[in-house]
Design brief:
- By secondary structure, the protein is of the alpha/beta class.
- The chain folds into two domains: 5-176, no CATH class; 197-263, no CATH class.
- It has helices spanning 5-17, 31-41, 45-54, 62-76, 137-148, 155-163, 235-245, and strands at 28-30, 80-91, 94-105, 110-123, 128-129, 170-181, 197-203, 211-214, 232-234, 249-253, 260-263.
- Strands 1, 2, 3, 4, 5, 6, 7, 8, 9, 10 and 11 form an eleven-stranded mixed beta sheet that branches.
- Strand 2 (80-91) and strand 3 (94-105) form a beta hairpin.
């Protein structure tokens, strides 16, 4: 289903201006600085990208939706060119993985391999867990830094990029997301950036008695309280909703702007 231009514009402004979730390795450039440069030089960038997205079906999977937002921004940017997207790297018939994007910076003439990640993690005493508790921040960071970003250095990737006339100058990383805190905080493992976006989480049996709005996954990056009173539910209904589905839900509490996750009592155990 196509998106709404005003809502898409708000989401794209967030994408450009939000802090990174993970620090960039020394060998990488932060894609956020490139997108901010484009926005400063071309204030119409957001509206143009939103109008392009409004005519396209919006993916249901959050990672694909994020990728579509980034691609629309690059397509609308005056000095960035999207050369390739989801470029499969194969070696002797085996698919090693994909390069999220290959982008030429017309300002410098350089070509970069871009990797993207949009993630949400909940803090416990020992680990950052995703809403799907099989996903952890430490596991994602290890895969991102040791598999995804170095993939463009593989001989098969270099051959493909050379064949296409895309000699790489380096790698670029774009991470966005939010971390949610309870009374415990992780004491070990991968650490995020200091200025990351924050929220809260609670088990369903610890909720205050109030009214809530359950957020659709597409609204997780930019949680926003609807003004439609019919979208609010009370605490007993929310508890039943969470426990019956056995998965965390992102919510907003009435009269509060900070988003949170309500998790089943058994979470993070599968």
């Amino acid at each position: 289903m196509p998106g709404q231009p005003d809502k898409l514009a708000r989401q794209l402004v967030w994408l450009v201006q939000a802090p990174s979730l993970l620090p960039c390795p020394d060998s990488c450039r932060d894609a956020g600085t490139l997108l901010q440069r484009e926005y400063q030089h071309a204030p119409q960038l957001i509206q143009q990208a939103a109008e392009r997205l409004a005519d396209q079906p919006q993916p249901r999977r959050l990672g694909l939706l994020f990728e579509a937002w980034v691609a629309a921004l690059i397509d609308a940017a005056p000095t960035l060119t999207l050369l390739g997207r989801n470029l499969p790297i194969r070696d002797d018939g085996t698919t090693l993985g994909e390069l999220d994007m290959v982008v030429r910076d017309e300002h410098s003439g350089e070509i970069h391999h871009w990797e993207l990640a949009l993630k949400f993690y909940l803090a416990t005493a020992t680990q950052w867990y995703g809403p799907n508790s099989h996903d952890t921040l430490e596991r994602k960071a290890r895969h991102l830094f040791h598999s995804q970003l170095p993939r463009s250095d593989h001989p098969a990737a270099k051959r493909l990029l050379t064949e296409r006339g895309w000699p790489l100058s380096g790698r670029v990383l774009l991470t966005r997301g939010r971390l949610f805190y309870h009374c415990d905080q992780p004491r070990q493992g991968q650490q995020p950036t200091a200025d990351h976006e924050r929220g809260w989480w609670l088990p369903s049996n610890a909720l205050p008695n109030t009214h809530w709005q359950v957020l659709d996954r597409s609204d997780w990056p930019t949680p926003f309280m609807s003004d439609k009173s019919t979208s609010f539910i009370d605490t007993p209904t929310l508890i039943d909703y969470v426990e019956s589905r056995s998965r965390p839900l992102m919510v907003l509490q009435v009269h509060h702007d900070t988003p949170g996750f309500v998790v089943p009592v058994s979470w993070p155990n599968p």
